[in-house]
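Contributing: when you submit paired examples, paste them exactly as shown. First protein:
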Amino acid sequence: MVRLKSSEAASTSASSICGNLANLRELPNLIQMSSVKQALLQGQGETWVNELLEESLRLVDLCGFSRDVVCSTKESIQDLESSIRRNRGENATRDNINAYVASRKKINKMINKCIKNLKSSNQSSTPLPAIGTMLKEIEALDFSVLKSVLMLLSAETKQRSWSLFSKFPRTKRVHSEVEQETAAENLCSLNIHMSRKGMDNITLKQLKSAEMSIQELEEGLEALFRSLVKTRVSLLNVLSH
């Protein structure tokens, strides 16, 4: 969990966020531990346990929403690819770009509304036992990583980790990874789309690179969603006894 905290703090790129999604899935289901079960049963009815239940549901909903947004983003990229192929052109046309922009604007409104709701959620000031603190920290990490996914897709991130590579000579592999990262983030950036700048010369190769990054995000979110559902079911089972 310490490793995840340190990497999460510096995560702004698609590749680093995918890494954090994978790290979250590796965290054990602590609800299955006897000491955690005992603490939950002893605290049943207390505020911190009720908050854990509520937050576990919010996490499932947020992860499901993030997964759907990523899926919609991938579909909009695929639609743009198909349009270019139908036109038998190497670059996107103005109509192709306008259709893509309209789709991304709709998605971005949904993301901004969700992020606003996250910012307005109240943090608990209730004193917690040690196990309660640990479980809340894991939930906080889940929320933070999922929020970073939404911020990436809405172009809220201000720094790009791959920009550090510009200071060093690039190997062929590094150059390819940076190119893919750039394509993914440019296509997710509504600021670029709204002005149409940087999109006129978009190619199928760039779209495919972006699609690969988005696909990795989608797979990571799907796996995390299943893990969060499993954790919530375990929590409900413990408290129902």
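Second protein:
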Amino acid sequence: MCFSAALALPLLSNLEKNSANCTSNCSGKDEDSNKGQSLKLSLPAYKWRLVIAYDGTRFSGWQYQQSTPTVQCILEEALTKKTKINRKELCLVGASRTDAGVHAWGQVAHFVTPFNYETLDRVHRAVNGLLPSDIRVREFSPAGPEFHARFSVTSKIYCYQVHNSTIMDPFLRHYAYHSEYKLDADVMRDAAKHFVGKHDFSAFANTSRNDRVPNPVKTILRFDVIEKLIDEWKLCLPTMSTHPGSTIQTMG
């Protein structure tokens, strides 16, 4: 049995969205310490929107770090190779930071170039070809000058999975929290209702990291608790060059 809890968070303020049009963080440092840094590019500048999926198991989160591998760092390396533009000029910005080991299916990001691309399909394939198998750009599209991956957000969805079994499934160890005690889905749903709405979430801040959230009052639009059945029978034959699975795939 596996439980999935999904939270939906709402729109950012118009003030934050408008301020994004004239400032952006391109240094790779903490975004909050670079709010006043202006992006200076030779005109014309073209902006590109990416939707990225990644398995975050081996990464130290999204945000660029010099000492450890992150998703932003790897993606910037691929983009700099393809565009021949250094990372500061690319100014790759993500919609959200994710912590170490956290995965994403629809992380939105944008970057800029001083030149235009007439056909994006080839560029899209080339960038994915430069990325490791645990990162993929799902969508690659042009964006208007007013678009900002962080400040144009209308909502965010976070999904937390709990594998509810006496024994943890080794295939899920990177994708779910393990709870060996029987969980009551109905009780969890009743508790989730109390989170919906506008509340002060200061009590959930990580005091050990001295988190300083400018405004701890947030609004949660939905909090769904979904109970799923996990297939007990799994057959994985990754080392065999010929097996029934590959034969069926070839026929398809």
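If you have annotations for the second protein, write them as plain sentences, like these:
Residues 11-42, 232-237, 239-252 have pLDDT under 50 and may be disordered.
The chain has six helices and ten strands.
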